[in-house]
Amino acid sequence: xxxxxxxxxxxxxxxxxxxxxxxxxxxxxxxxxxxxxxxxxxxxxxxxxxxxxxxxxxxxxxxxxxxxxxxxxxxxxxxxxxxxxxxxxxxxxxxxxxxxxxxxxxxxxxxxxxxxxxxxxxxxxxxxxxxxxxxxxxxxxxxxxxxxxxxxxxxxxxxxxxxxxxxxxxxxxxxxxxxxxxxxxxxxxxxxxxxxxxxxxxxxxxxxxxxxxxxxxxxxxxxxxxxxxxxxxxxxxxxxxxxxxxxxxxxxxxxxxxxxxxxxxxxxxxxxxxxxxxxxxxxxxxxxxxxxxxxxxxxxxxxxxxxxxxxxxxxxxxxxxxxxxxxxxxxxxxxxxxxxxxxxx
Length: 345
Hints:
8 strands, TIM Barrel, 10% strand, globular
């Protein structure tokens, strides 16, 4: 979820939800190879998030190769290729769910990603990738930033524990949809499986559906059978409201796991099946806002505000509180508003 599952969100989710696996927001591989350092901000993570998978999107096989090496170098536990994003500005350019229309390119991307991980496991160095200097410097430099110190410290910890002389092969997975305009899931999944990914996540809608209608778990189950026969893991996604429903879907539709996305917004407890009080929600909302400022600085607080709105639901006067939070510019202001609100409850 671009612009949502950033480093602060994932830190809070890992702390209060403890999901079995965490994915980053997707990162543009072409942005990395073009030298856009901000592209790497979505790969910031804390060691508490392990196991964590780096998710990438794009349409250039060689860029995926380089991104895979970077993910391995930064200590990620896996690499996921997004072939399911329905956003028009991405799919119309042939990336995300747009790759469903181009299975030949999709397969090349998977194979190049796997090649990148293989080469890294055999000792390939970042310097051999001909990365833009700003990108290389960002990855290698800790400097005085908490963000970079976190990334580099994690990298050092993981690489020091890797077996020598080789490094571990990271699993490559794909997240996709049932089809582009129509449900072509079975044929599409068979084509992806020719590249032998470790896992495939299927969102139970086509690109054209976006997030409308109900997710088709029957088709997810049918695709899952094919995936299992190929020796890969099958994961389902779509319309999961709580942990109990996730477990029921996994059993009833015979998938190896279920991804939860939108239902976790403002609700990291969904993964641990806890029902937080309003006071607990406010406490974590404040902590989330403070963590956001710690990681990304105080200059741009606006991206945090949507999270604050998600935390503030389901109590009398919630709409008024949300309106007040939309005018905040710091976590101190958030704390003042929520503390006053709590006294009035």
